[in-house]
Amino acid sequence: MSAKQPTRKPTGKRKESDASALEGRERKRAAKRKGLKAGSRQQVEQGNKGGNGKQAKDPRIGSRKPVVLIVEEKQSKPVAPKPQKEKKLVMTPEQELASIENDDRLNDLLDRLDAGETLEAAEQAWVDQRVDRYQELMDELGIIDTDEDDDGDFDDVEYEEPRQPASEEELWERFSQVDYQPEPKPEPKKK
Question: How many CB atoms lie within 10 A of CB 97?
Fold first, then answer.
């Protein structure tokens, strides 16, 4: 071959116009993207509702009302707390009497008093209150407290002298003077 080689025509790409180049790039971009574009969920919902000019409210967004994080006391109206009614357990007098008798604290304090100790004013007041309530319940139920009988004076009580047992004749006279009328027996039921 000769020193000069024949010039060759370029066998590469041919020149495109600007318009055809732009279209080609758009096709290439579209081919790269697969799926929907970002944020399409909100755009699809808004597009389906129609274009009334109003934006549709997103159901995921809650109230926009500001939330107070620090509670401030209202000084316009001082609210007086309502007095709460004391809820007393409804107990029968028998149950209340049993609970007082089985109260360990009361028993301990009474034992200390019997031992000769002096109690504090609050404890003594509580013991007096419980003992008074115990006496009220005893009176209400008609129960006689045997402890009071032991403390009484024996000089004031009159006792009868024991007598000789009655003879058989006196006993028979007492028996015969009593009008004894037995109750009639019920008749047996007929079957």
Answer: 19
Task: With CA atoms as reference, report the closest residue to 45 among 36, 169, 85, 17.
Answer: 36
113 φ, ψ to 5°? -65, -40
Read off the DSSP letter of residue 189. P
List of long-range contacts for 143-151, beta carbons under 8 Å, 24+ apart: 143/97
Identify residue 96 by its one-letter amino acid code: E
Q: Give tens-digit pLDDT for 62-80.
A: 877 888 888 877 666 666 7
Please give the Cα distance from 185 to 191 (Å, whole number): 18
Please give the Cα distance from 46 to 58 (Å, whole number). Answer: 9
Distance CA 57, CA 165 (A): 111
Of residues 94, 84, 127, 133, the one with CA closest to residue 108: 127
pLDDT digits (tens, 9 = 90+) for 104-153: 999 999 999 999 888 899 999 999 999 999 998 888 888 876 555 555 55
